Amino acid sequence: MMDGLLDLLGLPLLACVPLALLLGYLGLHVLEREIVFIDIALAQIVAVGVVASEVLLGAGAPALAGQAFPLAVTVLAAAFYAVVRRRVRALALEAVIGISYGVAAAAALLLLGVAPGGHVHVQHMLAGSILWASPADVGLSALVFALVGAVLFLCRRPIHRISDDYDAAVRAGLRVVAWDFLFYFLLGVVVAAAVRIAGVVLVFAFLIMPATLAALFTERVGRRVGIAWGAGLVAAAAGLLFAGRLDFSVGPAVALFLGVALGVGALFRVHPVAGALGAAGVAAGLVLLAVLDVGPGLPAGAQAGTGRPPRVPEAAAAPRDEEARSAAAAGRQPLRLRPEDVEDAEDIVALGALFARERAPDVRARIVRRLLALAPPDGIARALEFLESDPPLYFRQVVVEALGAVEPKAAGFEVTADAGAEVNRRTAAAIRAGLAGAK
Amino acid sequence: MSAATEFFLLQASLIAVVLVLHTYLGLHIIRRTLIFSDLVLDQLAAFGVLVGIALGVRHGAAGSYALALVAVLAGAFLLTALRPRTARIPREAVIGVLYALALVASLLAGDKIACGTDHVTKTLTGSMLWATWPLVAVTAAVYAALAAVHFVWRRRIIALVGRRERAPGDGGWEFLFFATQGVVTVLIVPVAGVLLAYAFLMIPAGIAALFRRDWGGATLLGWSVGTGACLAGLAVSYLAGLPYGPTLVLALGAAFAVALLLHMATGRREEGG
């Protein structure tokens, strides 16, 4: 069983090491500068770049072209933050960063509305897919992290001075805007690379929690780095164990244990005995998990026959995609229809199955339109089912329009009212009656 | 009145009502740099709804609202109670940690609920299904009551701004502040979605804080610019057939960008200050 454990946790743990080291260090600066939001905002801005490049260039664009957009928006964001910090005194930089996060998230949502398979990205961005980190992924990000780490080490003095006291650095004649630009740009590169393998939640946790824990205990930078690194690595191992044994998503589980470490640290500050008891309790629980084989020890979604409807854990989206891609590469037909193939699908049964499985309104609306074109009676039934799930207005409009092309009675739908409204219920019933009559 | 006009009016009035209180609360949040507090409460409300789904309570039912309310009141308590004792740790960091843990709780709960991830995504983006007249009335009533409370005790709550140490009795006022924010969140998020609710709170207040140091004038400025931007966003979303939530946030964001440029162009005197 220990072999299995190593298989399950070995590579993800290896992927966590550079994350814990680099993010733990950057977290100290982030805390000093009071820009807690920066990671989430940068991740969201990079995501806009990724989605924009997919929308404009198509998903099959060469990898290098695909990186150009995210890189360009990272440069823009870094310049924006560096200039705003210098020129805007009426607002804390944190507030501007927080607002830029909201705007970037809205832009991403708007773009995802027009991008095929967009919803998968939302889940991916949140939870990450560290369990499926490939050795190539880990290698590439390790390279990026090493480069960034080297630059940070070389430029550590000015960056530390600015983090310590911005105004003093300005008075001393330091070129703060240029150094800030470098800092935010490096942070953006690290966040972009890290979010790809670990997801926003985990990256945020790695950035903030170990640094906060370290700040609880000491003011000296060297010691803080040591504490942050140690806590990050221990929490990563604990979280992976927890997720593997009890069948939870990995990213959030590691983030949970980073939080637990911080909680235990805070208990220590309240009273050493309380802290020791808390640490002992957590350690005992983890040893139990490691020794006893309580969980299934399988990736999420592998148990069957539990009587629940099949769930779709976010992590499972990743292997499904991988599976389909490798099947396509080998010239085989994928076993199941993928959301991006809806427009080319001929198989009504497969489309129906995807409709039943899929929850994202954009994909469901596309399936309905395809079914309406292929087999009107099926399509009409699905369209009604879709409308009754009260999808967002935009998708309601799309589907009612498509439905109207084959079923004149659809003109009776009031798209701005919800499905339960009297007029919509009557229209749906009339269309259903027509369908039954035709049979 | 055509259906489209009525729909437009409905949304416009809801936004105008909602923005008064949001701008004022947002000013507090921005002036005290508690930017993350709103996301904490949003996420906890979503967690409450998720727990409801696990217990078999339908999203949008009264029980679901009640659970969300319990979750945000607990959140308001935590936001009040958990303050770093050392100046080395900004309060925003503690709030950020709370946010991460609330999000983690939602994601882990989502792992164990049938179709949980759909619900998680849904609570994040909101259903963007806009309101009915009764909802506008209820929202207006609750908002008016909260605004009255804040008006009567405005001095006590404004006194919290800029205070590093906590004076005796501050805890209660702070809890009142976060609880108000929580109640507002529970009401608005199912209608507008997390993102738009967050933008309502932050962006008009952010614009106002760039130009005004007082409270009344800043609220008025933020409210008028915010409402104007939202109406423009509504018109664009209606004419171009774009989803409401993101379009409104982007319209507000554009207004903020203009305000920021205006501020930088005119604010040279403050440099180095």
Molecular structure report:
Chain A contains 18 helices and no strands. With 439 residues, chain A is mainly α. The longest helix of chain A has 42 residues, at 176-217. The model of chain A is unreliable at 115-121, 127-132 and 295-335 (pLDDT under 50). With 273 residues, chain B is mainly α. Chain B has helices spanning 3-31, 37-54, 62-81, 91-111, 116-125, 133-152, 154-158, 170-192, 194-211, 216-240, 244-266. In chain B, helix 1 runs antiparallel to helix 10, helix 3 packs antiparallel against helix 8 (170-192) and helix 10 packs across helix 11. Classes of the chains: A mainly alpha (439), B mainly alpha (273). At the A-B interface, helix 3, helix 4, helix 5, helix 9 and helix 11 of A face helix 1, helix 4, helix 5, helix 9 and helix 11 of B.
How do the strands and helices of this protein lay out in sequence?
The complex is a heterodimer of chains A (439) and B (273).
Chain A (H helix, E strand, L loop, with lengths): L1 H31 L5 H20 L5 H25 L5 H22 L3 H10 L7 H20 L1 H9 L1 H6 L4 H42 L3 H26 L3 H21 L1 H20 L22 H16 L18 H10 L3 H14 L1 H13 L4 H14 L15 H17 L1
Chain B lengths: L2 H29 L5 H18 L7 H20 L9 H21 L4 H10 L7 H20 L1 H5 L11 H23 L1 H18 L4 H25 L3 H23 L7
Helix pairs in contact in B: 1-6, 1-9, 1-10, 2-3, 2-4, 2-5, 2-8, 3-8, 4-5, 6-8, 8-9, 9-10, 9-11, 10-11
List keywords for this structure.
heterodimer; A: 439 residues; mainly alpha; ABC transporter involved in vitamin B12 uptake, BtuC; 18 helices; 77% helix; B: 273 residues; 11 helices; globular; disordered C terminus
Quick structural gist:
The complex is a heterodimer of chains A (about 450) and B (about 270). Chain A has about 450 residues and is mainly alpha-helical.
